[in-house]
Specification:
It is a single chain. By secondary structure, this protein is of the alpha/beta class. It has a single domain, classed as STAS domain (Transcription Regulator spoIIAA), CATH 3.30.750. Helices cover 36% and strands 28% of the residues. It has helices at residues 35-49, 68-76, 91-104, 116-123, and strands at residues 6-9, 13-17, 23-27, 32-33, 54-59, 65-66, 81-87, 110-113. The strands form 2 sheets. A 6-stranded mixed beta sheet has the order 1-2-3-5-7-8, with helices on both faces. Strands 4-6 form a two-stranded parallel sheet. Strand 2 and strand 3 form a beta hairpin. Helix 1 packs parallel to helix 2 (68-76). The protein is globular.
């Protein structure tokens, strides 16, 4: 993919498609992410990619909480992603991320990272 990044702003997130096809999702500071927010984000991703599976970097380090219904919606819409990098910055978010991965066994490669740069470097190696 080439050209300028395409950007979508939701009530609690910003999402954009990079020219290399990687989608970045950044949740707003202090966001309490609900099922409606997850539906809005997955709809935005589907619109950005045309429904074609894409690599996704999720930066949730400043989000306050994620409901179980949100996690289940992301599992339900797994066909939208070919790989997922989750940026986590607290011991609790790392624990929750590891628990989510262990319990839900994502079909796409999924890893946790401490920073965006490491997450992007990994996503660039995943096809």
């Amino acid at each position: 993919m080439t050209g300028e990044p395409v950007d979508v702003t939701g009530e609690k997130f910003r999402m954009w498609l990079r020219p290399d096809g990687i989608v970045l999702l950044e949740w707003s500071d202090g966001a309490r992410i609900s099922l409606d927010d997850a539906l809005e984000a997955t709809g935005a991703m589907e619109g950005l990619t045309g429904g074609v599976p894409a690599r996704l970097l999720v930066n949730s380090r400043s989000a306050a909480s994620v409901d179980r219904s949100v996690r289940m919606e992301f599992v339900r819409r797994a066909s939208l992603v070919s790989a997922v990098a989750l940026v986590v910055t607290t011991p609790l978010s790392r624990l929750m991320g590891n628990f989510f991965i262990a319990v839900n066994s994502p079909t796409a490669p999924t890893r946790l990272f401490d920073d965006d740069a490491s997450a992007l470097a990994w996503l660039e190696t995943v096809t």
